[in-house]
């Protein structure tokens, strides 16, 4: 299972990198979203995907799952949700103001 | 256990929330934020006093014992950074009162200003790696909003890139944390340091060290990852640019120094030599950028890059003297850089431009502005009685002691080029014939100079009182070079 997840993380990062390197603003945003999902999955995978009882007092089991990575991912997902929302608004405003979503036309110092 | 440690984080956060409710009342906002920032300064000085006299202070949040819960740790280094943050926050706020357009004030300028201070203080005080990530994000989200504040075409274009790059580096930060958690099974920095010392997996730890170095290097604008900085710092108004120029990159540098003196100390021949090489390249290419520019704000932005190199150079040499020099340099740089950006704002208010070709003769019409700027510029370049000289002197001395001739040579050349480009600003903006109209010449800047004056006094004071301050930096350096003190304070063994 860990191996499968690692491959999935790799695929997410690969697609994310490809999208970030394209020229359209929206694709860059999508690429960043995919990459942050990949990072979250990696965080989950690195703590090993054990099957076991929930780590509660009174649970009598041979092995327990580690609750920490899930707490971390929850935090990271919330943060990346907020940042993504902001990034989408910013991308939209940039598009409205410059009348283009082509990053090639958003570079240089023509109007500085 | 000391609840004082959380006050520098909680105070700006609560004030920021309160200010949201008064977004339409300009005077109320001014009064609340001025009082709050003064309290923040007082609290952070008191915190440093307590830390200095009673040793490292920790706070276990929710009473969860150290490796399981989140801890806040205030050692000398963190306490010093919190004071510097409060000083910059203080002066930039009073400068913002005078310069930020009332329309912008209505759109929650002050709440985000305080949320930024929350994030910065949190990043300094946290003792937990994931919590560091969270506070980085708090700081960054506030900075995303402040940097695009006003929404001009230029700002929108450049801040999109700023935001995208920072999100990418945050993703890498999670990746680094994931690997480190996989290897050590903990996130408490003191606990990680302990586990890393026990583990003998050199290879994977070096990989993690470099991943985290990459993350902090993007945030701290090290070579070759500084390309985003000059353009994005050019856009926002002077008060915000000064806050960013003074504080934001230094949070990245603080994180580098913290992790590479506490956690990744097992293989300095590999990691610290890479850091030293990066420092040299950062200094050199940053200052080349500054020399090639002809715009007040852009020159200052490129100088941030070259001076970040000096701080990291201290870490790369990795002796108590070098680290003391780096710490002294951080204090000097935060103060002087904020002052210089505020000067850029003041001259822009008079002449209406930051392009050096369109300026001239300010010394005749605004003598105080000119002479105070000269003090700050000379301090940045490292002219003796001012603070810049002594911090660079310590770094160079440490480099000579360790026989790192090349980096010493580079830093001396960079010092000369810094002097050259600061003199370029002075000659073009303040000498030569007057280029602004008589009406502009009558613009009063004394209100703008009052917030800058404390910074100038501080840089002179840091230079004249070099001996006690250097002794303090040495104490800080010895404390962070001895991780056992930190580990014992946090884990309580």
TrEMBL record, chain A:
What membrane topology was assigned to this protein in its record? Multi-pass membrane protein
List UniProt keywords, sorted A-Z: Cell membrane, Membrane, Transmembrane, Transmembrane helix, Ubiquinone
Highest taxon above the source species: Bacteria
Q: Which residues cross the membrane?
A: 6-21, 28-49, 69-92
Q: List the subcellular locations.
A: Cell membrane
Listed under GO cellular component are: plasma membrane
Q: Which InterPro entries match?
A: CPA3_antiporter_subunitC (IPR050601), NUOK/Mnh_C1-like (IPR039428)
The entry sums up its family as follows: Belongs to the CPA3 antiporters (TC 2.A.63) subunit C family.
Xref: PANTHER family = ANTIPORTER SUBUNIT MNHC2-RELATED
Identification of the protein by name: NADH-ubiquinone oxidoreductase chain 4L
Q: Which organism is it from?
A: Caldalkalibacillus thermarum (strain TA2.A1)
TrEMBL record, chain B:
**What is the membrane topology noted in the UniProt record heading this document?**
Multi-pass membrane protein
Kindly indicate whether the keyword Disulfide bond belongs to this entry. Answer: no
Cellular component GO terms, alphabetically? plasma membrane
GO biological processes: ATP synthesis coupled electron transport
Note the Pfam families from the entry: Proton_antipo_M
Q: Which molecular-function annotations from GO does this UniProt entry contain?
A: antiporter activity; NADH dehydrogenase (ubiquinone) activity
Give the transmembrane ranges: 6-23, 30-52, 64-95, 107-126, 132-151, 163-183, 203-226, 238-257, 269-288, 300-321, 327-347, 368-386, 406-427, 448-466
| Keywords, alphabetical | Antiport, Cell membrane, Membrane, Transmembrane, Transmembrane helix, Transport, Ubiquinone
Q: Indicate where this protein resides in the cell.
A: Cell membrane; Membrane
Q: Which InterPro entries match?
A: CPA3_Na-H_Antiporter_D, NADH_UbQ_OxRdtase, ND/Mrp_TM
Domain NADH:quinone oxidoreductase/Mrp antiporter transmembrane per the UniProt entry, residue ranges: 127-418
Which family does the similarity line name?
A: Belongs to the CPA3 antiporters (TC 2.A.63) subunit D family.
Name of the featured protein: NADH/Ubiquinone/plastoquinone (Complex I)
Instruction: Give the organism the record lists.
Output: Caldalkalibacillus thermarum (strain TA2.A1)
